[in-house]
């Protein structure tokens, strides 16, 4: 991406040594079109690359029966049949596919209100507001809560949507080391106490922003400590449960349930419907006044089209299964036992596995970014779809394969995957040996 007639091309400054031509260099990795529901077994379209690697065409050939270890389908609701899919089809028949308006105009459906009421009840908080997009739930709502003169303390591994929300808010942002409560306290003390006259507080509000489960690390936030610090330093807490709602806790209620903490202790409970619910969109739950404030002020409530009807219905039906049926309980337990089996299996084989043993996100180290493409390609040739990640999403020598475990995967799926991973681990020499 160089000069064009003396003008710098539009995207030139975004290319660097590591990312240059990344889509051409990594044409074997798992970024091909999927032509099925993102369930436990998927179909993938084959592509043929031109010699230069600059373009590709679809061959019409489909790789069938690929075991999916990459989608965030934690509870197995990414389905194209069954009660949830049938309910969504009925929703299309009643409402159509799109809403064509925002909540503030003519896009306020009865099922949106029903979902918000049920979600608030599920989380045992006073109120909830939903949005059509999970990413915008963070990036557009954080600026409604803090602004100039406020301080945000943000975990260094927070998701891009949270980072964007922090930037758009105009608040001062201080980053603390990932899940490091000592560093969080140090940064709080530095920002509030040190150098200030006694009793003087230099910030209008202080907001600590964390996630429940971290999507590249598989770690679980030390929520009890975060809440202790919140109280000690009179701050607020914003908790993103994208990867923990449905996936953590005995009844899937997320990281608060996991630690035995009532959700009301957290000021802003945020989550997405894109993972455990197999749908799309996000929510913020908390007090009535928080929710009323966001309904009126949030750009994503006022200026964006509200959640699509079949999506809303998918969330309502999966929520019903999760919260009120034996099938829901079975899925939550199956996810937990699958996570344990897979994590233990990887460790036994000699891989370095990051994160908490209860986390459905399972990152295993590949180390060198050069091995990322080969790992993914070898997995695909053995019938497994995986997500591999390297710099700049991870530190340069901490490239990894990031497995996402699902309740829909069978023990045989997981054991076969472990066998394949083991032989590839030998070929690429990425197993840890004592
Ligand atoms: N928060 C976190 C922690 C995420 O991982 C993601 C996306 N994976 C989002 C927010 C954005 O949500 P969505 O994909 O539903 O837009």
TrEMBL record:
Record bears the keyword Transferase: yes
A GO term, aspect molecular function: serine C-palmitoyltransferase activity
Catalysed reactions listed for this entry: L-serine + hexadecanoyl-CoA + H(+) = 3-oxosphinganine + CO2 + CoA
Record EC number: 2.3.1.50
Cofactor requirements of the protein: pyridoxal 5'-phosphate
Gene Ontology CC entries for this record: endoplasmic reticulum; membrane; serine palmitoyltransferase complex
Annotated metabolic or biological route of this protein: Lipid metabolism; sphingolipid metabolism; Sphingolipid metabolism
Location within or outside the cell: Endoplasmic reticulum; Membrane
Pfam families found in the cross-reference section: Aminotran_1_2 (PF00155)
Signal peptide: none
InterPro entries assigned: Aminotrans_II_pyridoxalP_BS, Aminotransferase_I/II_large, AON_synthase_class-II, PyrdxlP-dep_Trfase, PyrdxlP-dep_Trfase_major, PyrdxlP-dep_Trfase_small
Keywords, in A-Z order: Acyltransferase, Endoplasmic reticulum, Lipid metabolism, Membrane, Pyridoxal phosphate, Sphingolipid metabolism, Transferase, Transmembrane, Transmembrane helix
Record keyword Zinc-finger present: no
UniProt main location, coarse: endoplasmic reticulum
Domain of life: Eukaryota
Domain Aminotransferase class I/classII large: 66-421
GO biological process, alphabetically ordered: ceramide biosynthetic process; sphingosine biosynthetic process
Family of the protein in this entry: Belongs to the class-II pyridoxal-phosphate-dependent aminotransferase family.
Protein name, as recorded: serine C-palmitoyltransferase
